[in-house]
Specification:
The complex is a heterodimer of chains A (110) and B (415). Chain A is built from 2 helices and 6 strands; from the N terminus they run E-H-E-E-E-E-H-E. Chain A has 110 residues and is of the alpha+beta class. Classes of the chains: A alpha+beta (110), B mainly alpha (415). The interface between A and B is small, with 8 and 9 residues.
Chain lengths: 110, 415
């Protein structure tokens, strides 16, 4: 099962963890074969939220919700179950500065 | 009449079996079927089949194994029927799995492991605290949704929804059905013990409402505590069971016949349950023999000092202060500090305790009713009637429990 680990940080902590540490973490997970994809994101000022209501496309500036922490990056990891996913998420460096949301990825069923 | 007479003993033994075995059978079925709802349905199908077949064919040699394998067959059958509706060409594809050795699924060791798996899954930290409690009482203790709702003064639909959501999360986020590894065990066990203690406290000292205690919940928590100690004899599991037994041993003395709270020092100690105290003291000793007593074991040791004092005046407050010092070192909290201050007041006089409590009652425990009640009591003993009145009145505003309110009102009237 794949899990999306979303990294949340307060704006002034976006660079609290050195890029090198995050790059090393990604490299380590890649070598273990559990990393599908991981990227850091630009701050929410560059964010756009896209919604569709009754088939109509609505585009708004900004993140999906107004909170102190903002989405700062994500890891798409392949874990056996939630416990393993939680373990992996807890090792993602910004987990100590902000929060990491672990969300199971839904397999599409077309 | 004859038919009824011969059927009744078997029906009765099946009902008895439901009491003693249904949670074990359920725990194993969840492992075999990988789904809570399917397992519950299979459990009921298995008992229904027993009610039909056993009066005719006799009780099987190993009823638990029979129930597990029958439940599993019924679930596979139901799944096959569902698949037949979905796609006609898939019939019988997985039928063979039903014919593997059944005895191995239900041997004693794996069944006891399944009970632990169930407890740890219901108390998984990825579920909300309310959901953990509801799911544990429903699945591990076998209480009905209505019983749990009544005990927690929650509307039954809210509670049912909580359980449905929790099961949904277990399934969708793939919370594993397993006993945590040795490395994860301390943290995960702590979550389980927290649920058990929360259930006990809700029963022992209901946070709101007319009654001081809701006996069923305390009894349920003690049953859970015993099960944990039996399955996983860790020092803190022993400590928590001891703590619950020692508190509960005072139940009969804790309320007057008209439902008023009786404080520890005023209780009729001949009403304390001596067998339960002996049980609790033995468990405290076991937990301490590990060399690293945890917070539950230390609190139980404090309760044991009270339990072993022949009179309130003979209480060894020095020992109790020492245990609170130990507790402050490993699990400091303002509530522990408050209790320690009370012990110091009892050992060294009200002024010594009040010096600590003044800070707490105007600081971290500003909104904690007992901090103000204790402050009121110590001021009263020091003859500071106006301060006592102010504190009792503050405590009265903060309490939501009727017997507690009456106790504070009596204290106010006595000033």
């Amino acid at each position: 099962m794949k899990y999306l680990c979303l990294v949340y940080l307060e704006p002034d902590k976006l660079h609290a963890v050195p890029d090198r540490e995050c790059a090393n973490c990604g490299q380590g997970l890649r070598e273990r074969g559990v990393l599908v994809a991981a990227e850091a994101l630009e701050p929410t000022e560059t964010a756009t939220t896209v919604r569709v209501r009754s088939g109509k496309l609505l585009v708004t500036d900004g993140p999906f919700a107004e909170t102190k922490e903002q989405l700062a990056g994500f890891y798409l990891v392949d874990a056996h179950d939630l416990n393993e996913a939680i373990q992996i998420a807890s090792k993602i460096p910004p987990a100590r500065e902000g929060s990491v949301e672990v969300r199971p990825v839904r397999e599409l069923n077309p | 009449m004859g038919a009824v007479d011969t059927a009744t003993p078997i029906q009765e033994s099946i009902a008895g079996l439901y009491e003693t075995e249904s949670r074990r059978v359920l725990a194993t079925l969840i492992r075999l079927l990988g789904d809570f709802d399917a397992a519950e349905e299979a459990l009921h199908d298995a008992f229904r089949a027993a009610l039909e077949q056993w009066p005719r064919e006799g009780v099987p040699a190993n009823p638990r194994a029979w129930l597990v394998s029958t439940g599993r067959f019924k679930a596979i059958d139901a799944g096959r029927r569902r698949r037949r509706f979905d796609s006609l060409d898939d019939v019988g594809g997985k039928a063979d799995v039903a014919f593997i050795d059944t005895a191995a699924w239900a041997d004693d060791e794996s069944v006891e492991d399944d009970r632990l798996r169930l407890i740890f899954t219901c108390c998984h930290p990825a579920l909300g605290p309310d959901a953990q409690v509801a799911l544990t009482l429903r699945e591990v203790c076998g209480l009905t949704t209505e019983e749990i709702a009544r005990a927690f003064l929650t509307p039954a639909p809210t509670l049912a929804q909580r359980i449905v959501r929790a099961k949904g999360k277990i399934r969708d986020a793939r919370i594993p059905y397993e006993v945590p590894s040795r490395a994860e065990l301390p943290e995960r066990l702590e979550a389980v013990l927290r649920v058990v203690y929360l259930v006990f406290n809700e029963g022992y000292s209901a946070s709101s409402g007319e009654q001081v205690t809701r006996h069923d919940l305390s009894a349920e928590a003690i049953r859970l505590g015993r099960l944990l100690v039996e399955l996983l004899p860790e020092p803190e599991a022993q400590g928590l069971l001891a703590l619950m037994l020692l508190h509960d041993s005072r139940r009969a003395a804790r309320t007057s016949p008209d439902g008023d709270l009786v404080l520890l020092e005023d209780q009729d100690r001949s009403l304390w349950n001596r067998a339960q105290i002996a049980d609790g003291v033995r468990l405290v000793e076991q937990a301490f023999s590990s060399g690293h007593p945890g917070p539950y074991a230390i609190q139980a040791a404090i309760a044991a000092v009270h339990a072993e004092a022949p009179t309130a005046a003979a209480t060894d407050w020095n020992e109790i202060v020492g245990l609170y010092d130990l507790l402050m070192r490993i699990a400091p909290s303002p509530i522990v500090e408050l209790n320690r201050a009370v012990a110091i007041a009892m050992r060294d006089g009200p002024a010594a305790g009040l010096a600590i409590i003044d800070g707490l009652a105007s600081g971290e425990l500003r909104d904690y009713r007992l901090a103000h009640a204790v402050r009121g009591e110590l001021c009263r003993r020091l003859g500071r009637a106006a301060d006592a009145q102010a504190s009792f009145e503050r405590a009265l505003k903060l309490t939501r429990q009727e017997p507690e309110r009456r106790l504070i009102e009596r204290r106010l009237a006595e000033l």
